[in-house]
């Protein structure tokens, strides 16, 4: 059997700070299937970016994997050295980042930046040039030949993100990690970039792990969606399951606070703040903000209950002994109408 | 950049240069003139005391030392404008000729120290920045700080004691051995100890500045994308971070010219090295105004010129600096007119 592009097993990751140990990722397991787009969503500080960066070991020195493992294309990289990671980065997995305005090296032409990444493929200078142009065109940049000799400041935000995408794809990675790639862009450009990612998946069989706080982005692009809260995966399932049949109260809360779900009514925000990860509470971290919390939520962490073969959620409400609760009306979303978006 | 803009730039820089030189010469001339002591003493030596009042006046007149100070300055300025910087009172030769014998020595000592200081500072700063917060970084910082605070003349004396007096490996004074004036290896042997003192005194200061700049640069977002490409830590540090820090390093190098030049003056005194610094101190001591003025002007011209040069180099390293100046096009080819 072909190895999965990315397998994360029970990963625990902490930051050592002067105030103590911040438990940023607390036992997350997930698998990225070949050619799949998996979106991880959650609010700020839930550990989604950290999880994404830990795959390529781009975290600062004070971040430490405490237990669990990360397997990239079948290879265990949990304790890989910097030298090993250098070989893996770009060729096995590459990444695009949040802020397109600062993600490119400012005093180097786009062509030179792409060539740096292409060097891994040992092409002749002519092939490099042709490949650079092809890459830029594949991410939707026109007049690519002239563009090669320009500096990043000649490009708009959306175009810079496309260039970053071209650079990330230059060494033909199998996995693309995208850390809020569209957050800093306006709506129209967001859709263009997301569609481009979908197209790249279709054409190259790229597997994509995308991190976002925007459920709209998830709805547009995801095959599967994972919801993160306070460093834990609280619910994961196909896009349909998460949007039309959510099971975790936190997912209900997120959906209720979407303008698309409110449709003319007032938005329903989630009260309170996420917990302090220096000292996470016992039990379910969401319990104190959860209007449906039951006594055990404050004492014991819920396991991931299977809802279907693809759908899992970590809430005690799924225990056979728990009271039956129907999701709030505000979290109900009409079936997605693609002609309207 | 068009020819017209370049021409305007040159004229502007030239004007700045001339005004600065005028102010500098004016200030030094007046300060020197009002300093206590008699320049006649250095010209005539003991004989001054046996001169009659008339002879005294005549001698002053010959040397252009009579009349109010502003008149003296006027004479000096008029002559200097035609390239005549007057006689050195002490050496009794045209000041220009005196300087020619010394300036090469200082340029060699200062130039070698300058290049080595910045080469080593950049390398050490890269080491520190790449291993930021680790033992390597901290060790370099501790040793550097201690060396930086040791007084230069004391290090000079200690080095002299060890390598010249006790071990006898290296010469302890002068710029070359007698009869070896044209021997570059012999000259280099003579500057080893002075250069070491210069490096010890200046290295950490610049390492620290460059290190901090590099550390700041390493936190930029583009570093993450560069790493994602699979560049090694060294490649990211040199090709990306160092390249973006280069304009800062060049600026630091430009403003440090006077710092390092000043350093050579002290070192020249310790090692009895016949350079401009030693000459400047002597000329001030002997009220050798013409010589002093020439040295000050040369030093000043050198420092102002290096500042202007740094500006030009910066625009060349970082094309963005030019674009900000009102350019419309962003390709490197168009920026450099190629």
The helix/strand series of chain B, from N terminus to C terminus, equals: HHHHHHHHHHHHHHH
Strand content of chain A: 15-25%
Largest interface: A-B, 39 and 27 residues
**Termini separation of chain A (Å)?**
39 Å
Let me know the average pLDDT of chain B: 82
Helix percent band of chain B:
over 70%
The level-1 CATH class of the largest domain in chain A: Alpha Beta
Low-pLDDT runs of chain B: 324-338
Helix segment count of chain A? 11
Which geometry of chain A do the CA atoms define? globular
Q: Total number of β-strand segments of chain B?
A: 0
In words, what does this structure look like?
The complex is a heterodimer of chains A (341) and B (338). Chain A is α/β, with parallel strands linked by helices and 341 residues long. Chain A folds into 2 domains: 217 residues, 3-Layer(aba) Sandwich (Rossmann fold); 103 residues, no CATH class. Chain A contains 11 helices and 12 strands. In chain A, the strands form 2 sheets. Chain A has an 8-stranded mixed sheet with strand order 6-7-8-3-9-10-12-11, with helices on both faces. In chain A, strands 2-1-4-5 form a 4-stranded antiparallel sheet, covered by helices on one side. In chain A, a hairpin with a 2-residue loop joins strand 4 and strand 5. The longest helix of chain A has 18 residues. Chain A is globular, with a radius of gyration of 21 Å. Chain A starts with 5 loop residues before the first strand and ends in a 28-residue tail after the last strand. The relative contact order of chain A is 0.14. The mean pLDDT of chain A is 89. Chain B has 338 residues and is an all-alpha fold. Chain B has a domain of 195 residues: MetI-like fold, CATH 1.10.3720. Helices cover 76% and strands 0% of the residues of chain B. In chain B, helix 8 runs antiparallel to helix 11. The C terminus of chain B is likely disordered. The chains are: A alpha/beta (341), B mainly alpha (338).
């Amino acid at each position: 059997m072909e190895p999965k592009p990315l397998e994360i097993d029970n990963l625990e990751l902490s930051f050592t700070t002067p105030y103590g140990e911040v438990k940023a990722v607390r036992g997350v397991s997930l698998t990225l299937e070949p050619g799949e787009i998996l979106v991880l969503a959650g609010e700020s500080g839930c550990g989604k970016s950290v999880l994404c960066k830990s795959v390529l070991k781009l975290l600062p020195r004070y971040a430490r994997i405490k237990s669990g493992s990360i397997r990239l294309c079948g290879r265990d990289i949990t304790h890989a050295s910097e030298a090993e990671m250098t070989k893996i980065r770009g060729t096995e997995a590459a990444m695009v980042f949040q802020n397109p305005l600062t993600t490119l090296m400012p005093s180097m032409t786009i062509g030179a930046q792409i060539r740096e990444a292409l060097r891994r493929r040992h092409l002749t200078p002519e092939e490099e040039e042709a490949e650079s142009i092809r890459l830029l065109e594949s991410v939707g940049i026109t007049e690519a030949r002239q563009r090669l000799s320009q500096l990043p400041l000649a490009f708009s935000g959306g175009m810079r993100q496309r260039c970053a995408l071209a650079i990330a794809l230059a060494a033909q990675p199998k996995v693309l990690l995208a850390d809020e790639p569209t957050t800093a862009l306006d709506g129209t450009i967001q859709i263009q970039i997301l569609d481009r990612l979908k197209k790249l998946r279709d054409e190259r069989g790229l597997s994509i792990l995308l991190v976002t706080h925007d459920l709209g982005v998830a709805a547009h692009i995801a095959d599967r969606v994972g919801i993160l809260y306070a460093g834990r995966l609280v619910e994961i399932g196909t896009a349909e399951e998460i949007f039309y049949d959510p099971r975790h109260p936190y997912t209900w809360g997120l959906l209720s606070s979407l303008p698309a779900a409110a449709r003319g009514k007032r938005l329903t925000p989630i009260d309170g703040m996420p917990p302090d990860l220096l000292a996470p509470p016992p039990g379910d971290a969401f319990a104190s903000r959860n209007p449906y919390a039951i006594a055990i939520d404050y004492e014991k962490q819920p396991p991931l209950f299977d809802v279907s073969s693809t759908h899992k959620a970590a809430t005690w409400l799924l225990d056979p002994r728990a009271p039956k609760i129907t999701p709030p009306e505000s979290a109900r979303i009409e079936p997605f109408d693609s002609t309207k978006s | 950049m068009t020819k017209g803009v370049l021409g305007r730039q040159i004229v502007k820089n030239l004007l700045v240069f001339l005004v600065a030189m005028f102010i500098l010469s004016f200030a030094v001339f007046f300060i020197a003139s009002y300093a206590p002591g008699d320049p006649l003493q250095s010209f005539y030596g003991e004989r001054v005391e046996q001169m009659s009042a008339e002879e005294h006046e005549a001698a002053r007149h010959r040397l252009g030392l009579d009349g109010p100070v502003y008149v003296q300055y006027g004479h000096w300025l008029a002559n200097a404008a035609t390239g005549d910087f007057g006689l050195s009172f002490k050496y009794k030769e045209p000041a220009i000729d005196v300087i020619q014998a010394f300036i090469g020595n200082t340029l060699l000592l200062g130039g070698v120290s300058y290049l080595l200081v910045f080469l080593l500072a950049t390398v050490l700063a890269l080491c520190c920045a790449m291993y930021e917060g680790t033992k390597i970084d901290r060790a370099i910082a501790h040793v550097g700080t201690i060396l930086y605070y040791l007084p230069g003349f004391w290090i000079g004396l200690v080095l002299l004691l060890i390598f010249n007096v006790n071990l006898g490996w290296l010469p302890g004074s002068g710029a070359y051995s007698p009869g070896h004036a044209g021997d570059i290896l012999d000259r280099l042997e003579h500057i080893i100890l002075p250069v070491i003192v210069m490096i010890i005194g200046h290295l950490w200061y610049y390492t620290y500045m460059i290190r901090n700049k590099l550390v700041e640069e390493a936190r930029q977002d583009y570093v993450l994308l560069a790493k994602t490409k699979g560049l090694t830590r060294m490649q990211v540090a040199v090709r990306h971070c160092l390249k973006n820090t280069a304009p800062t390093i060049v600026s630091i190098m430009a403003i440090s010219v006077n710092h390092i030049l000043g350093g050579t003056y002290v070192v020249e005194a310790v090692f009895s090295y016949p350079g401009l610094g030693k000459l400047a101190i002597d000329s001030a001591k002997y009220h050798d105004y013409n010589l002093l003025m020439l040295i000050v002007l040369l030093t000043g011209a050198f420092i102002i010129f290096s500042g202007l040069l740094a500006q030009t180099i910066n625009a060349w390293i970082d094309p963005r600096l030019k674009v900000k100046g009102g350019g419309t096009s962003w390709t490197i080819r168009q920026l450099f007119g190629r």
